[in-house]
Design brief:
With 163 residues, this protein is of the alpha/beta class. The protein has five helices and six strands; from the N terminus they run βαββαβαβαβα. The protein has one domain: Rossmann fold, CATH 3.40.50.300. The structure holds guanosine-5'-diphosphate and magnesium ion.
């Protein structure tokens, strides 16, 4: 069985862009509209010798009460349940948000292996600007740029290493 990586995070952080890069596909819808990808998308990925399945998800709001957000949260929980490892994507430019804290709490509670990726980090200094993400209590923060293809190989190797 190939390992399964679920991409989780609030809307607009770049999950679909990362999914496309991991799977070299244009399947996932990349948009400036928050939360447009409302479903799960599966794709085959390969990084060097490693093969894996990636799952793209809509934006995650763990406490969403109703409607489309409730459905998105359900889809994301299912993706996380199916995954061997979660890549939790945050937005290095926007900084830490309350939603990020909610998602982190959920992932910590589950105890599922999680790698924290700070996306949109192209041209940023790793130190000061990323330090706030350590507050999420998920360990190391890995700067990546999904759109520029930076840090992706290291991220995937790290995510797959313990499997
Ligand atoms: P999702 O809602 O988390 O799936 O986010 P998308 O993949 O749809 O991307 C949301 C927006 O962020 C789009 O405008 C992307 O072009 C942009 N984006 C994605 N990755 C990067 C990145 O690495 N750097 C920058 N600057 N923008 C990015
Ligand atoms: Mg998306």
């Amino acid at each position: 069985m190939k390992p399964v990586l679920a991409l989780v995070g609030r809307p607009n952080v770049g999950k679909s862009t990362l999914f496309n890069r991991l799977t070299r596909s244009r399947d996932a819808i990349v948009a400036d509209f928050a939360g447009l990808t409302r479903d799960r998308h599966y794709g085959n990925g390969r990084q060097g010798p490693h093969e894996f399945i990636a799952i793209d998800t809509g934006g995650f709001e763990p406490d969403a009460a109703s409607g489309i957000y409730k459905e998105m949260a359900k889809q994301t929980r299912q993706a996380v349940a199916e995954a061997d490892v979660v890549i939790f994507v945050v937005d290095a430019r926007a900084g830490l948000s309350a939603q990020d804290h909610d998602i982190a709490k959920y992932l910590r509670r589950l105890g599922k292996p999680t790698v924290l990726a700070a996306n949109k980090a192209e041209g940023m200094q790793a130190g000061a600007q990323l330090s706030e993400f350590y507050e999420l209590g998920l360990g190391e923060v890995y700067p990546i740029s999904a759109s520029h293809g930076q840090g992706i190989r290291d991220l995937v190797e790290l995510a797959l290493e313990p499997l």
